[in-house]
Design brief:
It is a single chain. Among the domains are: 37 residues; 70 residues, no CATH class. The chain contains five helices and four strands; from the N terminus they run αααβββαβα. It is rod-shaped and about 105 Å long. It is an alpha+beta fold.
Amino acid sequence: MTKYKKLITYSSRTNDMIIALQNELGYDTHTQVFIRGVEELYKNTFKYGKDPIMGIGSPKTTDVIIENAATIKAKQKKARVLAEAELKLIPKRTMCLVNLGGTITRNEDGTEMCNYKTHDVLKSEDQTLPLIQVGEYLLENQYIPSKEAVLKKRPKLI
């Protein structure tokens, strides 16, 4: 490591601050305080991937680095949100297809719809609702007044 000697001039107030920092931090020399001060100032001045010593960080390069990092982070978040939404739909698809005996269609806007039938003692009716709204309550209300009563009056449904 190359060592440099420079003559610097500073006021008595600056000298008092250096001595106070020496006492507080336990440094033996003014040089230690000076080096630490320069390091802290450098760290606070060159943020967000800028480092002139390493050749990184012309303002244009830094902006590109920041923009790319933000784009990657946004894409990761979007992928995570989509994956979480997809996981929530899996049990709803099963409920629609298996438990309700329905089918799933997709609207032009991409919304998945559950098409199933509700039954009462006289007739059956087609029902359609967004897949996201499918829940246990539909199983209880698919047969009115009850599954046993409907199947007793309409044994062909079995």
